[in-house]
Amino acid sequence: AQSVTQLGSHVSVSEGALVLLRCNYSSSVPPYLFWYVQYPNQGLQLLLKYTTGATLVKGINGFEAEFKKSETSFHLTKPSAHMSDAAEYFCAVSTTNFGNEKLTFGTGTRLTIIP
Amino acid sequence: NAGVTQTPKFRVLKTGQSMTLLCAQDMNHEYMYWYRQDPGMGLRLIHYSVGEGTTAKGEVPDGYNVSRLKKQNFLLGLESAAPSQTSVYFCASSYSGFAKETQYFGPGTRLLVL
Lengths: 115, 114
Hints:
Number of strands of chain B: 11
Strand content of chain B: over 45%
Shape of chain B: globular
Oligomer: heterodimer
Helix content of chain B: under 10%
Distance between the termini of chain A: 41 Å
Number of strands of chain A: 11
Largest sheet of chain B: 7 strands, mixed
Number of helices of chain A: 0
Number of helices of chain B: 0
Strand content of chain A: over 45%
Radius of gyration of chain A: 14 Å
Distance between the termini of chain B: 36 Å
Structural class of chain A: mainly beta
Radius of gyration of chain B: 13 Å
């Protein structure tokens, strides 16, 4: 079985400061990892994903995440927060478990940007 | 391309009433999904479909039924609504069911059951 833990349901950072949203996963087989973002009153959209290859993944809007197998982590970072980054962020995991390739979501982290 | 659309955007039901939520996608995707989103619980899969004419149960299927008569449409039905079904419902689609595929989400339907 696979699972995702997002540490911190709410994170506040000042505009221009580093954004760090934490995600740890559990999986018995190599995982595929995703970050989705949900802006207010909208559906989720993909920020970035790790499938294979380079462990540092770059996404949209200046976000990036690093897959660390030894730490079972996939933390999301952005060097300088912008007001438009205020949203809810979901980490998700899936695995190649044929016939059961489901996407499992974390509980989400709401990011607030302080002017 | 409109992507994934959902109707209605918001609905209020009384306990015991029925309703159908409609999801449509114009990306020719094979797979479609229905999720519910509740505070502090993330998204949970209700039902999904791997192609036209197919449906399968997800993590929380009780109290819901689905149909996929056309490839582009995926309907979610509540036969007898209960207050526990108050939630935000999201439809999503993907090109295939491979684990690394991106899912594309609709804007959601907010349902309140009184």
